[in-house]
């Protein structure tokens, strides 16, 4: 079981890191979401894995707590999940704002001198900016 | 109990308190402002005066305010002879400068600011000389750099002022940084940061391997502050400051801080060959160099600045000799230099003030026009030259005497010869100050007609000149003070007697040679000056500027390479750096044995794992088609929730699945406005490189997680399990941790969430007001849309579900303390239920029925949670301690009520408000994009259609 969890965390991390290295905001948001999963599961796993040992006390027996898994990482992860939602939301709003202001959702700064070598094929953002197209429903249906 | 020692912290803090006053008092007029500046100084002086007799008798006063004793951090002060001497000088001259500046500064200068800076600086200097803790001393040391920066750059409109201030800050600040390193080494060697302990551990320090680095670092701090070669160049540039500042900082206080530090550290660091060769040599070079340059400076203040550099070199050299006699000479010269140099600076200021120029070549003959000033200037300058019957002569004799008896690298005469040479130039520039400014015929081309200034301006330098003459004629008057301070420096009993006439000895011959040579040199000045101007010489400012530009360029190169505006590059650097650090830590440490057996894999688990991994891979492969990627992300979230269920974390599973829902909703809403596809932008090579980084990171994290899970370690978790029921009143340990044990954490987190919600709202507001809003309103639409945006089935289904969903939410909330659930999950469930209404019945319809603003929900949430915490104060317990009891309501069985539940209510409200505010903000965008709002819950009402059909039939 440990191997499965560890590899899953690894896969999520790798996917997340790859996506945050992309050039568009949406991919980065997806990457951050995947990294949050990875981090949350990793933190959770620091309490070690246990099956059928939820930290819900049943018999109120004193002294022997071997039947319960570690509750502390769970509590920490619970708030982390909610906070990572908040983070994702703020991130989404930033990129949306940047997209609406600038006309494209590239995350890197413009200008040929600031772009790294080997990335010459970046499309010209100015063109997008001039004519924003939102692919949503038309104002009125054909009627 | 009140003791004399408790005055020390008060003395140290007085100037800082006083610094608050002048800025306000300036409204009451300039004299009132100056008077209020003088008050804290006078008070501190009086307090110092009450302690002075004790210090003279050899008492060392100590006061300590303990802060973090475990780390050796405390605000401790002490006052011994050296401290008393310096504190007296700082306060006394500070008082004179306050008076002088009142008349010197013009009506246009912001005087309140000046006095505030002055008192800040005075407080910082006092702190240095009174600190008993070297860390505290360092803080005051940096404060002097900062406040002197403000003072030197006081005339903000002058570019030289700003440049000079920056240069002073750079040089002294860099030295201060070096000194921090040295002090920390010193503290580590001794095992205490208390100056008293360090001074007592001199042998231990000198024997330590770390002696050399500590010495060099500390000396760097002292040399930069005291303008020693090769760091002397900042001092002349700092002369762009108003003259009161120069007189205070560059004669009496700031530049003496380095000398003070060397004197203070004398018992701990001095007495080795290394100390002698570094300190004495640097001092000697500085003394000669400063004196030579001073002779050829035409600006009065520049002359005095280089003369100060030279005299500081003299002091440094004396301290470098490391003998008690040299220390006595140094202490005596500190006093003498203070008196004549401060007076000279003030004289130069008066000349500048009255004649409107400080250029020696444009002055001359002022003795007839301003006799009082001329007298003061002449007395002080004669003392600087070392002419008998003035105090400068006495300490210079002592210096020459010491210099003549020093052997430098088996050479018995070089130090004496160079010291004489320095004195010779010193005589020359002092006499030049007298004869070229005050002497000679009266000219008729002064920029302004000079005359003696009002009493207020010449009172301070005249007062200092009294000391110049008094000590010069009756040196025994200064003897007790010098003995007190010198004994504090050396830490041993000293007995000596100052006399004017020592008989004809080497020192006197050297003195005579210097005076005669100086007079000849002055006679030749006209010719030498031409040579000097013609000769090439390095310009310190150019070198300094070049150096700074080089460093800036270098740093810009590094920054540009690491983070050149492309965040993807920056993130790659970040990930790789983290990996490297992690691998380095892994290789450097030792791995423990695996102690836990692997948990068996149940048959269904591999299936979930496969789904998750495949979904992850697919997200990466298909991230360009964004809708598809969102669906796949949802699969990952679901698998993780299932994993939590499976691995005994029901609370996490509940939270994860509800967060998953709102996240997908949020991203869907956002995607509405964003492009639906990601274009291919990066080259294959780059993608390959990124993939390599990503896989390396994944493998590292997987390995770490595996290592973590297969090893045992002790944690504090058993405490929570044991006390959850008895202490927190709940059986769901996770929830009890959240609302009780770690309630403070949770409180902070809901505030963060609330702030995130409000930030999004604010961002949206400003977006809609700006160009983005205009662009949205003019947006085109390309996709066809459904004719029935709010289908009947969905409207009906969500309305039926609303009460059920609410019920589930309340149920989850109530059971939270004992069973999986709680405020977080309940808040999310409620949000989902409300969001469904938005989606099904439309924005306008739902908003009309919304009675409460979401902002208010966040506010209520935080307030309720906070008040619950405050409530425990009334029960006499710390913030957020929960209490609980059992109650019986007849129809229901025994029922538990805990204050934690109230706290959880706050959590619930805050989560609900924040989540709704975030999604609400996004949906508002849609309205600005010109989307029509449905008036009715359903745009397509089938009953209308039926009615229409019936009408048609009838027809």
Distance separating the two termini of chain B = 108 Å
- Main pleated sheet of chain B: 2 strands, antiparallel
Helix count from the secondary structure assignment of chain A? 4
In round numbers, the mean pLDDT of chain A is 76
- Kindly provide the radius of gyration of chain B, computed on alpha-carbon positions and rounded to a whole number of angstroms: 39 Å
Rg from alpha-carbon coordinates of chain A:
22 Å
Largest inter-chain interface? A-B, 111 and 141 residues
The ordered string of helix (H) and strand (E) elements of chain A is: HHHHE
Percent in strands of chain B: under 5%
The averaged pLDDT of chain B comes out at 86
Summed up, the helix count of chain B is 41
Structural class of chain B: mainly alpha
State which percent range the strand residues of chain A make up. under 5%
Q: What would the CATH topology of chain A be?
A: Helix Hairpins
Report what the structure shows.
The complex is a heterodimer of chains A (143) and B (955). Chain A has one domain: Orthogonal Bundle (Helix Hairpins). By secondary structure, chain A is mainly α. Chain A is built from four helices and one strand; from the N terminus they run H-H-H-H-E. Residues 111-131 and 135-143 of chain A have low confidence and may be disordered. By secondary structure, chain B is mainly α. Among the domains of chain B are: 272-523, no CATH class; 733-776 and 788-955, no CATH class. In chain B, 72% of the residues lie in helices and 3% in strands. Chain B has a two-stranded antiparallel ribbon. Chain B starts with 6 loop residues before the first helix and ends with a helix. The chains are: A mainly alpha (143), B mainly alpha (955). Chains A and B meet through helix 1, helix 2, helix 3 and strand 1 of A and helix 27, helix 28, helix 29, helix 30 and helix 31 of B.
């Amino acid at each position: 079981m440990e191997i499965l969890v560890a590899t899953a965390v690894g896969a999520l991390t790798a996917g997340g890191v790859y996506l945050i290295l992309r050039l568009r905001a949406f991919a980065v948001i997806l990457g951050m979401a995947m990294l949050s999963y990875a981090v949350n599961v990793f933190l959770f796993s620091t309490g070690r894995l246990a099956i059928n040992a939820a930290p819900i006390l049943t018999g109120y027996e004193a002294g022997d707590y071997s039947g319960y898994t570690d509750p502390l990482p769970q509590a920490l992860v619970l708030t982390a999940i909610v906070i990572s939602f908040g983070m994702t939301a703020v991130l989404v709003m930033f990129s949306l704002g940047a997209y609406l202001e600038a006309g494209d959702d590239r995350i890197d700064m413009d200008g040929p001198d600031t772009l790294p070598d080997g990335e010459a094929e970046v499309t010209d953002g100015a063109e997008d900016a001039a004519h924003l197209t939102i692919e949503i429903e038309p104002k009125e249906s054909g009627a | 109990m009140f003791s004399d020692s408790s005055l020390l912290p008060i003395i140290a803090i007085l100037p800082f308190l006083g610094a608050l006053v002048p800025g306000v008092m300036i409204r009451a007029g300039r004299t009132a402002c100056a008077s209020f500046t003088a008050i804290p100084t006078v008070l501190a002086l009086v307090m110092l005066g009450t302690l002075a007799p004790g210090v003279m008798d050899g008492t060392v006063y100590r006061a300590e305010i303990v802060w973090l004793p475990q780390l050796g951090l405390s605000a401790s002060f002490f006052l011994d002879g050296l401290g008393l001497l310096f504190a007296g000088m700082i306060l006394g001259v500070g008082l004179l400068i306050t008076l002088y500046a009142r008349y010197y500064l013009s009506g246009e200068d912001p005087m309140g600011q000046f006095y505030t800076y002055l008192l800040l600086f005075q407080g910082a200097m006092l702190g240095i000389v009174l600190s008993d803790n070297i860390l505290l001393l360092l803080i005051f040391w940096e404060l002097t750099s900062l406040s002197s920066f403000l003072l030197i750059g006081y005339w903000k409109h002058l570019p030289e002022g700003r440049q000079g201030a920056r240069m002073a800050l750079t040089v002294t600040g860099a030295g201060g940084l070096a000194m921090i390193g040295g002090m920390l080494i010193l503290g580590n060697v001794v095992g205490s940061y208390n100056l008293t302990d360090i001074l007592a551990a001199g042998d231990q320090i000198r024997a330590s391997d770390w002696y050399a680095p500590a010495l060099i670092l500390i000396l760097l701090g002292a040399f930069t502050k005291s303008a020693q070669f090769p760091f002397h160049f900042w001092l002349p540039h700092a002369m762009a400051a108003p003259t009161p500042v120069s007189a205070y900082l560059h004669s009496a206080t700031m530049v003496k801080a380095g000398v003070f530090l060397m004197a203070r550290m004398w018992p701990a660091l001095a007495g080795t060959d290394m100390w002698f060769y570094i300190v004495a040599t640097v001092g000697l070079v500085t003394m000669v160099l400063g004196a030579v340059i001073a002779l050829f400076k035409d600006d009065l203040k520049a002359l005095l600045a280089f003369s100060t550099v030279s005299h500081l070199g003299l002091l440094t050299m004396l301290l470098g000799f490391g003998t008690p006699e040299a220390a006595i000479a140094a202490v005596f010269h500190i006093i003498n230099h203070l008196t004549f140099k401060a007076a000279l600076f003030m004289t130069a200021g008066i000349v500048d003030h009255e004649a409107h120029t400080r250029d020696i070549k444009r002055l001359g003959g002022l003795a007839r026009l301003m006799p009082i000033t001329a007298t003061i200037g002449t007395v002080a300058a004669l003392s600087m030259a070392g002419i008998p019957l003035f105090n400068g002569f006495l300490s210079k004799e002592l210096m020459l005497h010491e210099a003549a008896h020093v052997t430098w690298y088996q050479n018995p005469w070089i130090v004496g010869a160079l010291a004489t040479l320095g004195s010779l130039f010193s005589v020359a520039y002092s006499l030049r100050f007298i004869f070229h400014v005050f002497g000679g015929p009266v000219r008729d081309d002064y920029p302004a007609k000079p005359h003696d200034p009002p009493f207020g301006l010449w009172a301070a330098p005249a007062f200092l000149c009294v000391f110049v003459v008094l000590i010069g004629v009756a040196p025994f008057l200064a003897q007790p003070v010098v003995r007190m301070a010198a004994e504090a420096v050396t830490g041993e009993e000293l007995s000596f007697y100052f006399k004017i006439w020592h008989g004809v000895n080497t020192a006197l011959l050297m003195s005579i040679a210097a005076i005669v040579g100086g007079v000849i040199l002055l006679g030749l000045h006209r010719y030498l000056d031409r040579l000097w101007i013609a000769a090439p010489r390095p310009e310190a400012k150019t070198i300094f500027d070049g150096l700074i530009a080089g460093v800036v360029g270098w740093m810009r190169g590094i920054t540009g390479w690491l983070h050149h505006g492309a965040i993807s590059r920056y993130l790659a650097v970040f990930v790789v750096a983290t990996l490297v650090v992690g691998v380095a830590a892994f290789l450097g440490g030792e791995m423990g044995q695996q102690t836990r057996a692997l948990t068996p894999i149940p048959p269904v688990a591999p299936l979930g794992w496969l789904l998750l991994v495949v979904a992850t891979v697919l997200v990466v492969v298909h991230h360009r088609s964004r809708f598809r990627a969102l669906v796949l992300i949802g699969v990952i979230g679901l698998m993780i929730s299932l994993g939590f269920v499976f691995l005994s974390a029901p609370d996490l599973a509940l939270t994860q699945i509800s967060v998953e829902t709102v996240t997908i909703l949020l991203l869907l809403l956002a995607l509405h406005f964003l492009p639906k596809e990601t274009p291919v932008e990066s080259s294959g090579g780059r993608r390959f490189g990124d993939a390599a980084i990503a896989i390396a990171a994944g493998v590292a994290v997987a390995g770490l997680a595996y290592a973590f899970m297969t090893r045992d370690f002790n944690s504090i978790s058993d405490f929570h399990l044991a006390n959850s029921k008895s202490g927190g009143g709940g059986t769901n340990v996770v929830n009890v941790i959240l609302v009780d044990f770690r309630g403070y954490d949770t409180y902070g987190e809901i505030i963060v969430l609330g702030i995130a919600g409000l930030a999004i709202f604010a961002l949206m507001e400003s977006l809609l007001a700006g160009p983005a809003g205009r662009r949205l309103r003019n947006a085109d639409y390309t996709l066809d849309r459904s004719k029935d945006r709010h289908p009947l089935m969905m409207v009906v289904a969500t309305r039926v579900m609303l009460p059920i969903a609410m019920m589930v939410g309340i149920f989850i909330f109530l059971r939270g303390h004992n069973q999986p659930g709680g405020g977080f999950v309940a808040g999310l469930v409620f949000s989902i239920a409300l969001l469904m209404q938005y989606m099904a019945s439309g924005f306008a319809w739902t908003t009309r029925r919304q009675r409460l603003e979401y902002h208010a929900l966040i506010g209520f949430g935080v307030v309720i949670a906070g008040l619950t915490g405050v409530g425990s104060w009334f029960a006499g317990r710390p913030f957020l301690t929960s209490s609980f009891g059992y109650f019986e309501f007849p129809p229901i069985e025994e029922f538990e009520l805990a204050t934690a539940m109230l706290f959880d209510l706050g959590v619930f409200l805050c989560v609900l408000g924040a989540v709704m505010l975030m999604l609400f903000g996004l949906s508002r965008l849609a309205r600005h994009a010109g989307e029509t709002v449905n008036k009715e819950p359903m745009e397509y009402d089938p009953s209308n259609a039926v009615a229409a059909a019936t009408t048609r039939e009838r027809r």
